[in-house]
Amino acid sequence: MADPAQRHFRTLFLSDLHLGTRGCQAHLLLDFLRYHDAETIFLVGDIVDGWRLKRSWYWPQTHNDVVQKLLRKGRKGARIIYLPGNHDEFLRNYIGTHFGGVEVFEDYVHETAAGDKYLIIHGDQFDIVVRHAKWLAFFGDWAYVTAIQFNTGLNFIRRKLGFSYWSLSAWAKMKVKNAVNFIGAFQETLTNEAQRRGVDGVVCGHIHHACDDDSGGVRYINTGDWVESCTAVVEHQDGTFEIIEWSQIADTQSGTEGDADEAQIEKSGSRVAA
Fold first, then answer.
1. What is the pLDDT of residues 222-255, one digit of tens each?
2. Domain-by-domain residue ranges, the chain?
3. CATH topology of domain 8-268
4. DSSP letter for each residue of 153-200
5. How far apart are CA 82 and CA 134, in angstroms?
6. Nearest to 109, CA basis, from 46, 199, 242
């Protein structure tokens, strides 16, 4: 495997890692963190999945390695800001505190190198199902995991046949009308909140769908997730943003050498719903 070059950014945005679940692609995340550093790292919610950990404990060494890798970046000088989501909502009891060099906020207004201001927030606060029908959110979580278990088996076969990774959930989101409508409504709600707060844009997570869109006059950036699509958002030193799709990069660079690790990830995986 030809190693990609080390990259250093002004800001790195990660969300929806879902550490503590079998679906977290911790191997790919560790690989990503190996090559990407930033002055400031925003953890935009659902980093640890408290919902799943309450039901059954799952915390392999790779998940611990991710935590240690992030904390090590903090010790080396990176500022780490944690904005809890619905799956790690227990951390909202610690808003305004620090632990291990990590600052915890409900939301945050970030100013880019270009002078633009962005609201950084997980986004579950604007999800009606999560706020008012949590039982339905739990049911959706179960249904989502079941679908992804099928997807991981399918992709194990695809890898053996030499095909690249294919996301069932991403395909479904774009094909199923209700899912498309939900994504659109979520984006509209978050951009309206950004307008209300008088900022230039918003960076969020929650719905596991990476996006960068400024067609509405307010820029909407969604970081995606690290249970299937493996995407992150970075701010370059000049204030421009980029979505990095690490699963696609890893596919093109690893070749057959990465098959064993990827198969192990897929064998153990089941993606967690937003």
1. 999 998 889 999 999 999 999 999 987 766 555 4
2. 8-268
3. Purple Acid Phosphatase; chain A, domain 2 (3.60.21)
4. HHHHHHHHTTPPP--HHHHHHHHSHHHHHHHHHHHHHHHHHHHHTT-S
5. 23
6. 199
